């Protein structure tokens, strides 16, 4: 059975607008933090190693956010991440931020493996591709 990477976040005052709800650009930051934690804790490779030692990166090639319901200061978000497509040089992620079982925001994000020496897309390392496959689901819902 495919895995889902999960974490929780309490919404902080500084993440909110004057109405007391999460300011929409903050979800891109929350998403990036979740992806970085997934690489480190879920896949076993931190960004420093990936970038500095391996000379590789996975920049975002496309990003789509659906804002389904507002989230307020102090609420706890249940954050989930999984893979829906896995190609030779790219992968599609779905990230969901939910509160009390209700999805508040859904992000679809395509990452592309880039060789930092050439700044061109390239095939993923087989060991890393195997790690990505552990989180591969057939659709946008796990």
Automatic annotation (TrEMBL):
Pfam families: 4HBT_2 (PF13279). GO terms for molecular function: fatty acyl-CoA hydrolase activity. This is 4-hydroxybenzoyl-CoA thioesterase. It comes from Brachymonas denitrificans DSM 15123.
């Amino acid at each position: 059975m495919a895995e889902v990477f999960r974490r929780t976040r309490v919404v902080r005052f500084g993440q909110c607008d004057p109405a007391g709800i999460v300011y929409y650009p903050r979800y891109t930051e929350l998403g990036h933090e979740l992806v970085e934690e997934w690489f480190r804790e879920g896949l076993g490779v931190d960004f420093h190693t990936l970038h500095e030692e391996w000379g590789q990166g996975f920049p975002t090639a496309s990003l789509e956010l659906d804002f389904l319901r507002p989230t307020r200061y102090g609420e706890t978000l249940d954050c989930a991440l999984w893979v829906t497509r896995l190609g030779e040089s790219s992968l599609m992620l779905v990230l969901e931020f939910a509160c009390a079982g209700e999805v508040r925001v859904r992000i679809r994000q395509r990452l592309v493996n880039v060789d930092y020496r050439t700044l061109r897309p390239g095939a993923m390392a087989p060991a890393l591709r195997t790690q990505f496959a552990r989180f591969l689901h057939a659709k946008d819902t796990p």
